[in-house]
């Protein structure tokens, strides 16, 4: 692994930035964190004045003041970027296909070690090629738009019923069957798994709360603190069982609600 690696972190969640810094130094004690930046505005100011004494950037995508791509639109940063995100969509897949990696939240030591190894093999050995790849991927990602599912054609009582995805309050799986629940209490069987729906639904509207539930933001009535750092989600119509978000996903859920 490359020694004396100087890294800039762009991340608005303090706990996540500290965790990333800890893991990076655990993987390679010689890594130096040059700067932790918490917003687009702060990053633009810092990169404008900085002399480029760093090798690699770890950057979240969704920051408190917008998408981090805006930084790279305004500042010509000729250094490789590994994007950190809680959203796995086609744009992220474009990064994988073109050689710049991403880290999916919540990440662990093994994932960080893997992505640093990929940096070594794809970027460090050919810095000019790496710079060109970074710029190409930034342009591609900025122009890549995921088309999310807007409606479902559902079989119901011998008929086909079109249902607007945004009007579905939550999805629930039981006995390997997935149900879509509407605001008026109706429920329909949908021919998708929750894993498939997680990729098909707009992540700004829907959140995978746990293994059993995907919930619509508009259906959330309240959030309560639960045992061991978990969150208890109150939605309408109220399901028969509790909807709990794990401690590991709690921060991402709160950020999703606060967008």
UniProtKB/TrEMBL annotation:
Q: Which UniProt keywords apply?
A: Phosphoprotein
Which part of the chain is the HTH LytTR-type domain? Answer: 152-259
For this protein, the record's SMART domains field holds: LytTR, REC
Residues recorded with modification 4-aspartylphosphate: 60
Q: Which Pfam families match?
A: LytTR, Response_reg
Q: Which domain of life is it from?
A: Bacteria
The Response regulatory domain extends over 6-120
What InterPro entries does its record include? CheY-like_superfamily (IPR011006), LytR-like (IPR046947), LytTR_DNA-bd_dom (IPR007492), Sig_transdc_resp-reg_receiver (IPR001789)
Q: Does the keyword Cell membrane apply?
A: no
Q: Does the record carry Cytoplasm as a key word?
A: no
- Protein name, per record: Two component transcriptional regulator, LytTR family
